[in-house]
Q: What sequence folds into this?
């Protein structure tokens, strides 16, 4: 990838127009256009100014190409503007290229996502979706209990999982990149609650796993997500068969046990016939009246954090394979900043012992 293509990628990532970027670094919009079309090459002074204006390291503009094509697998579901989609794709491409780069440095034999035998599943009914979710759990040896770390599971199965800063209209999407036979990645937005994030990941998995016939693709993926996170057998066991009503207390406990929202549990109980539609409606009305649709009562579930990429970078740094500066470039921020952020979750000792 040329420097000009990198400048355009960085500009799209920050949602700046050529004119806006030109104003930030004190050149003409025509100059930016020439740089992006490789009709001119910026000197070192301009490259430094571009680095500061786009909040990117100089190394970003010099990084070799890894990805020939990347696109959302399910573009029709994207609700972002064209400008928003361009920014999202540029951010995803940047993250994925850094991911692939550390794999290359370590000569890491990256796991590839392969469909289990019998998948993807052709489904024509809701019951077949339930069966597909159960079959995938069996194929992956998950049983019917809670999935403790869905992000880690997907990474182990060869799906690259990332979290990025993105427009609030975006929650998650599956991306396909053409790199040596193809790479599958699922990206979620930073800052969404853990239960919503896990449902989004399961929802994207549903799109990968199912081939729908005479069914709405989105509704099928939603049903799969609920069935994958809360299998029918688990729901019946946890709720003890048919019920007249569900308590807020047990919904909260089950939310934390299965990493699925209270609303998801209500919906799941309704679609499995454990509670009546009228009882589910009453619970939904209660949630709306208490403003629990946006923020559910009780302590929230922390988002899951993909770890494989960061583990590889930090491992390469302490082994002396890459420098701290190089590690920061791959992480997208200085190593100290990364460790300070990690220390908020794992304790202040983390930053101290890593140096």
A:
């Amino acid at each position: 990838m040329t420097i000009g293509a990198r400048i355009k990628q960085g500009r799209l990532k920050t949602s700046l127009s050529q004119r806006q970027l030109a104003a930030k670094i004190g050149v003409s919009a025509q100059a930016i256009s020439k740089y992006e079309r490789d009709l001119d090459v910026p000197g070192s002074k301009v490259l430094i100014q571009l680095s500061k204006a786009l909040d990117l390291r100089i190394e970003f503009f010099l990084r070799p190409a890894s990805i020939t094509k990347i696109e959302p697998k399910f573009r029709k579901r994207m609700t972002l503007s064209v400008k928003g989609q361009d920014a999202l794709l540029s951010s995803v491409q940047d993250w994925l290229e850094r991911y692939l780069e550390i794999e290359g440095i370590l000569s890491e034999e990256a796991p590839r996502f392969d469909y289990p035998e019998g998948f993807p599943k052709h489904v024509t009914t809701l019951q077949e979706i339930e069966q597909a979710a159960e079959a995938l759990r069996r194929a992956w040896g998950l049983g019917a209990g809670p999935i403790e770390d869905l992000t880690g599971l997907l990474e182990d199965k060869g799906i690259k999982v990332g979290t990025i800063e993105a427009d609030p209209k975006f929650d998650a999407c599956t991306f396909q990149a053409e790199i040596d036979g193809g790479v599958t990645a699922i990206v979620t937005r930073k800052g969404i609650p853990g239960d919503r994030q896990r449902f989004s990941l399961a929802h994207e998995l549903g799109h990968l796993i199912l081939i729908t016939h005479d069914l709405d693709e989105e509704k099928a993926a939603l049903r799969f997500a609920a069935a994958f996170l809360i299998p029918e057998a688990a729901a019946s066991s946890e709720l003890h068969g048919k019920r007249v009503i569900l308590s807020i207390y047990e919904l909260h406990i089950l939310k934390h046990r299965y990493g699925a929202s209270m609303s998801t549990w209500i919906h799941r109980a309704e679609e499995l016939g454990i509670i009546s539609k009228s009882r589910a409606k009453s619970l939904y009305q209660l949630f709306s009246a208490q403003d629990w649709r946006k923020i559910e009562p009780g302590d929230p579930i922390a988002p899951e954090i993909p770890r494989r990429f960061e583990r590889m970078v930090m491992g390469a740094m302490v082994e002396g394979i890459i420098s701290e500066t190089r590690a920061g470039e791959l992480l997208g921020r200085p190593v100290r900043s990364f460790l300070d952020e990690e220390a908020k979750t794992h304790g202040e000792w983390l930053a101290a012992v890593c140096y």
